[in-house]
């Protein structure tokens, strides 16, 4: 049993005939909530997380899925959640294999469970617990029979029409899409006891309907009908929507829930509207990427055969050099370029220092690219499926970069100076060794630029997988040289130094202004972590960044206040790390998409290995978007070209299936698919056509390019 201030959780078992093949065996986690607190259903609604159960069972025992009891609708401000209050048992059926043989002397089977749940009131507390149960094998376990019987009654029953359980099309439950944002629902076969009553509807598929919206419902004889608004943030276009219906009850009704639930599968009729994109693009980002596209020339790239690259080493080196140059226009590099602009102003009147700084920065960039390339090639040689930008697939790396950029922002803003709390030998390092400072700035540039893939880079990086190590590393070196080349050239051109204003008080204002690009980068990194570790991970990172800021501020104080505040803040930071760091590195278990979620005629669907080939084999073209949350170019393309009305109309007219391969988290299958196309990073956009080789588009999409390719399908 696990007891917290908010819940009491206990592992229960029910084996009426003992643990034997063919006999019923149930396990379950019973959660008793404190008043006003709740945990969540399989679809938590607008927020929250479902309870997760991870079993460790003896050989011959196989745990099934949770038989979720009927939930309640729980309004939270302008949102609505689905979950449980009071006491709830989450039962799990266990199959006993015919091979189950515990031995003649064995009396008990050891059952272990690791459970995690999110318990909320107005605030939310993530909790977990480990449970162990010694389950008697021969004797019956009927002590918890009443609890499991009640849970079985609370499990929704299937809705059936007719007398033989077979549902003809004329009586099938349906959801007709109307006006692009409303589902007209009709359900047949509900029991007579419900007719004429107001019902609650609980969708098993998340992020489809507007959970908190008010909607109309009525009875037409034995048929229940409703008009339910779609969610503005809809992320799925399923052809079947499983729902649970039950008599409406108050959100916080006292006493046990005695309602009966009924499960129906709504067959969706009509055409889904396009899935809304929730990624905003700033004007600065849009301008930078348009400049990127202009320099790329908008040239379309086609792949022959399997789509793998066939370019030569010379072309790969040239492409890497050009790609590195264009990388300077990518928004992810802007913060580091801001640091270099500050460096320009500091050395504007010292041509020798200017040149040395440029050489050191170039060395830092080139050597870092070579080191990163060597690491990637080494991991591949060891059997790891990694590609370009693989380091940002690690939540720990993302969190570390966010902490680093927070420190840089605080330093630029003048919150602290390194000399105030570092030993003088270390604090004066920048002044005594400006070469090392420029070198490390080059390393930092690579750290933030590496997730990006600029035009001309994709094919060059893809070729490194097939080249000998020295040649592959030469490609990475050329990429680094391209990134550093503008600054290196500017450091050797006196006109650049002469064009800069003379040093003065304005430099301090400019330095503080440069803190804001750093903070914008932190925002982006927190958003990336949220895509990997969920809202809990993003929130935990924000808390730790606040604690880190408090520590550096305290260390910058003087006198006795510094000692006292530093001691308190460091102790508080240690406590925060202990409490919240696990949420940063925890990656939620991804739930596999059901066939009903995948089989939609229009709208983006999750990519899976072999899915594109299977659809093409049926004579239908496919467009695949290989993307990641940490790829800024991907988000820009998603918001602009891929959301363009003309592009969407052309895709629908050609009956193109749309698949999205999300590489935010590490996925060896997606890495292998990219490698088969001669690519090792994202974005990658591919059209698959029946009987023809795939067509790979440019990294920065234009509407004309996509429409021209669609016209040739």
Key structural traits:
Immunoglobulin-like; 713 residues; 40% helix; single chain; globular
How do the helices and strands line up, and which of them pair or pack?
Blueprint: E1 2-3, E2 7-14, E3 26-33, E4 39-45, E5 52-56, E6 61-63, E7 72-76, E8 79-84, E9 87-96, E10 108-120, E11 124-136, H1 145-154, E12 157-158, E13 174-178, E14 182-187, E15 199-203, E16 216-220, E17 223-229, E18 240-247, E19 261-269, H2 283-296, H3 313-327, H4 334-346, H5 351-381, H6 395-412, H7 418-421, H8 424-427, H9 429-432, H10 434-449, H11 457-463, H12 469-491, H13 494-499, H14 506-513, H15 515-555, H16 559-585, H17 595-598, E20 604-606, H18 611-617, E21 622-627, H19 632-639, H20 645-653, E22 657-662, H21 668-676, E23 684-689, E24 692-696, H22 703-711
Parallel strand pairs: 12-19, 13-19, 20-22, 21-22
Antiparallel strand pairs: 1-2, 2-3, 3-9, 4-8, 5-10, 6-9, 7-8, 10-11, 13-14, 14-17, 15-18, 16-17, 18-19, 21-23, 23-24
